[in-house]
Prior knowledge:
Shape: globular
Largest sheet: none
Helix content: over 70%
Number of helices: 7
Distance between the termini: 23 Å
Order of helices and strands: HHHHHHH
Amino acid sequence: TRVVSSGGAHAAASTISGFQDISAGQLKARARGGLICALFGSAWMYWAVVFSGHPTPTWFSTVTLPAIALTAWAILRIRAFRHLVSSAADLKHWKAFRRFLWIDSAIEWGLAGVGTFLLSRFGRFDLIPQLFGVIIGLHFLPFARLFRLSHYYWVGGIMIVGEAGSLLIPRGGVRNIVGCAAIGFTLWVTGGIILRRISLASGSQTASA
């Protein structure tokens, strides 16, 4: 939440107080989402180091520190919420969208597999990060409505634009780094935002209890 003035501070306070309306089921689901972003984001940041053409222990260590911190934060949130009981409304919402979730995920992995196969056939392994970035970005767009998280529209859009922009860079290590980091860093930031918001939400609920 950004605080730019006294008016901004009032808006921020209103936003934080609104977090009290987040249900137990939403807290648990978003904590798991934060963990997924942390794990997959870390994987793509490691691939950025590998595809750079010059992987060194220093670069791997640079990625490892935030990867461990974000993953640990997510696990702690999951453990903190594990005893919360999902409401009937949460369970109904999950059942309503569960089938769509699995279909969307299956399509994502199917497109990634077919696309990777075709790129391999034509010897364009260098375009694999861009392929995955666009597919993952598109994958986020319907989730914005599914999980009631409007910033997922931004996540998907930024990822797609980042991958498209990386194609302007000449073929080589730099483009590989940008392509992988556009996925990994975006997922890291998304995971951090999710975890911060649910931490504020749980904190405000505890304070009001």
